[in-house]
Amino acid sequence: MKTQIQTEWNFKLFYKNAKDPQIERDVQTAEKAYKDFAEKYKNDTKFTESAERLFEALTDYEQLELDATSKPLMYFHYVKDINSGDSYAEAQFNKIM
């Protein structure tokens, strides 16, 4: 019995398609998260006073990077990988970056 091997990527695990409204909602959520992060640390320089506070700020930043834009960025990155001529995917990727 032969095993069927999947040879195409299933982008629907991310979004329905490149113009799925959820992408814009995710990007708006990310923008708010970045603004909240900036607001939290804008006038608070205590994170420079100790290694623990610096570690907390860096951990917050790393988590922000993971949570905020990873899904839409990865979606358009993968679409570009499959079709390097997809100018819409390229534009959306660059817009999010």
Description:
With 97 residues, the protein is an all-alpha fold. The chain contains four helices and no strands. It has helices at residues 21-42, 51-68, 70-82, 87-96. The mean pLDDT is 90.
Offer a few descriptive terms.
97 residues
How much helicity do the residues have? 55-70%
- Tally the beta strands: 0
Runs in which pLDDT lies below 50 for 5 or more consecutive residues are none
Order of helices and strands: HHHH
Radius of gyration in whole Å, from Cα? Answer: 18 Å
User: SS-based structural class?
Assistant: mainly alpha
| Tally of DSSP helical segments | 4
Shape field: elongated
Largest sheet: none
Nearest-integer average pLDDT: 90
* Span between termini: 46 Å
Strand residue percentage? under 5%
Give the helices and strands, then pairings:
Elements: H1 21-42, H2 51-68, H3 70-82, H4 87-96
Helix pairs in contact: 1-2, 3-4
Quick take:
The chain has 97 residues and is mostly helical.
